[in-house]
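Morning, I've got a small favour to ask if you have a moment. I've been staring at a protein lately and its backbone has me curious. You're getting the sequence in one-letter code plus the fold written as tokens. I've dropped the whole record in just underneath, so have a look:
=====
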Amino acid sequence: MAIDIPQGILDALTRVKMPGGVCIRERDDIVEINDFKCPVHKVEALVLGSGAAGLRAAVELKREAVDVLVCSTGLFSGTSACSGSDKQTLHTAGTSNRGDDFTKLANDIGSGGGMDKDTAYIEAVGSIGAFAGLQYMGLPLPQDRFGAVLRYQTDHDDVGRATSCGPRTSRLMTKVLCEEAIRLDIPFLKQTTGIRILADDNEVKGVIAIERDRDTNEFGLLVILCDKLVLATGGPGELYRDSVYPKHCFGSLGMAIEAGIKVCNLTESQFGIGTRRTEFPWNLSGTYVQVIPYIYSVDEHGKEHNFLADFYRTTRELASNVFRKGYQWPFHATRMVDYKSSLVDLAIFIESRKGHTVLMDFNRNPEAVPGDEPFSLDRLDPDVRAYLENNDALREMPIDRLLRMNPLAIELYRQHKHDIATTPLPFNVSNQHMNGGVDVDIWAQSSLKGCYAIGEVSGTHGVTRPGGAALNAGQVFGMRCAKHIASCKGTFPDSSSIGDTVRKSIENAIDEIGANLDNEDGMQVEDIEIDVQDRMSDHAGFICNVDEIADALKAAIALNQSIRDHGMNIDAPNKITSYFNWRHTALSSEAVLRALNHYAINGGGSRGARAMCSANGTVVPVARNVDLEAFRFIEEQEKDKTVKVVLEYKNDGFEISERSLREMENPRSIFFEKNWGNYLTGAIYDDDFEHK
């Protein structure tokens, strides 16, 4: 029986009001460096980023009696607070009806390769505590009347471990975590962006940052001294032209690279269908496509094209694979073949390259493939029809099916001035998540001692992951890095921490800003943005031509050399942050292309959300009425699953290597009496991982 959801409930789960009243940290000191007065904050642990992962780390650090400070560019403007999908997924252990265990879950999380096996197991085991903590803090996860959390199946998950609070799940996570931070009186620095990591003798010393308020110096420059640093800034959202990231999400990958911190798996990203970034960027997974809307295009003359009919053989095949995009949302090269679901992504890519606008219409069912029977709910693949039937969604039109299965999905777009119940929705294939990032150990510590990375900026995510596993990873490692930091408390930093090396780094930052203010010979920020995004979208997207990577890399190297030689033009002090953001993004772009070039040279094949296309490829997608020879691709190589490509930035260049995946000791060898002492003495926190 269908239940009408009151408008108040719909509003509460979509118009999520964030808390106010966070505690603002006052400066501790002012130091003078070459007649330049610079505010100084001193803290035991600094968390850069105020999304779900960063706030979880801060809350757990505070509970461990660690003096912690959260530094945020925009308190509720990142991906956790602003991104989502129809029913954004949190993936954890604990299904109620299909049987599960941590080893099985770990195997599923890491099945795509490129993921350390101990990390996968840690995420599996840690998901219970992370999940329970969120429930305790008030996350409204849905339950049945017996108390079991409601679950569903996502991509790369045969068990059904996913759950959701609706389209704003990560925003609700951020909300309850921020409320907890307020209760714990955790201090914040708002509208403050880290621009350089301070280190000495391979130990973190702090961060140079830019604050919007410039009451001490004209640059807004300040220094935060810390004994431990947690990077929780999200992914490099500005790398691609087509993206579902909120605007101005830069992350800290480039800053970490510049500091010489090792990064890994930069070859790995996720791409999938989403609303265009020029409008309201949003993932179109789950019920948006499971209700099987009509997907079509409009050319420059306003003519409609049922273009998917050129790719699929029957109406049934077309409609069933549109449905499967709901839980097979990320593009995957193998799903381009045999008329599977990623043929939809490829078709949209081809259609968009023609300059056509691609839309989905929830008031029309799919048009028939020429010569075949029309769409009918009775003519769907058995798994598709069973899903709709089980959810009481065998309704005449897509909008009726969507109203039954997920009215929140409609409400969300209404709030952003687009009523999908009445108006077709334009969309494309977009970048959604960086699966690579900072290389870390089992406690999330990087190659720079005292510096940790969690959430999307961390390189723990492997090649393919079950939907929502990234949200779980941020929570698990937010808890684990806090435990590790608390176990090895260092000396509380003070102004004496500004040694010669750190002082020199601050002086260099001051000089760099000064040299680029009104630098008429420097490059324009806008030109760098176009240069980077066009190159990454055209040559390093989900369709990646192997023969074009080397030239794209040369162009990226040339861009960074030009930035080093000529600088950029900062035409006003309020553009200083933008200068560093785009300089770091350009560096990240080069790093990604270097990793891809290394991967391609060594015969790397198509995996994850990227097809490595080449005339030497062995697999050619097939369509009903379209020649796809240009998309011939190299198959994934089993050897590549067992290693990570690692990059380290030194002397304005990169060193590239590969390391084998860390193994997981057999859990059956761990026993209470034998291992209890390791916990009591803190031996479990001993470093057991070296970055080589």
Remarks:
- The chain has a mean pLDDT of 92.
- The longest helix spans residues 576-601.
- The chain has three domains: 20-271+433-497, 294-431, 521-660.
